[in-house]
Inverse folding.
């Protein structure tokens, strides 16, 4: 499941709506909605996420959250480390080769640390 798919499912459940209702309203198949949630399709387009936000009645921060999650929900991301330093190439490869062995807690710790490093660079 992708972060976007998980949140979309939570929002739909809060409203007691089904995948079938969502699919019919948005003009796609139920199979597409399921595949999108489970990470078996690429990240959704921005206009499609906008449609979902309207359908769910999301505004402001809630809509922005869903859009941010959609942008971070490509199930097969690629990292182009060409032109970077050797440590960046090694990091990209280490992550690609071991992502399946990291549990949720380990992923969260790594993301926190990476965000802190990125924030330091931007300051």
């Amino acid at each position: 499941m992708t972060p976007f798919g998980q949140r979309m499912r939570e929002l739909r459940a809060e409203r007691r709506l089904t995948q079938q209702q969502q699919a019919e309203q948005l003009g796609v198949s139920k199979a597409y909605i399921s595949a999108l949630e489970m990470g078996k399709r690429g990240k959704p387009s921005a206009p499609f996420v906008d449609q979902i936000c309207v359908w769910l009645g999301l505004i402001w921060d809630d809509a922005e959250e869903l859009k941010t999650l959609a942008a971070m929900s490509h199930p097969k991301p690629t990292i182009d480390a060409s032109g970077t330093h050797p440590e960046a190439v090694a990091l990209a490869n280490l992550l690609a080769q071991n992502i399946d062995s990291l549990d949720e807690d380990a992923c969260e710790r790594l993301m926190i640390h990476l965000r802190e490093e990125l924030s330091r660079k931007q300051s």
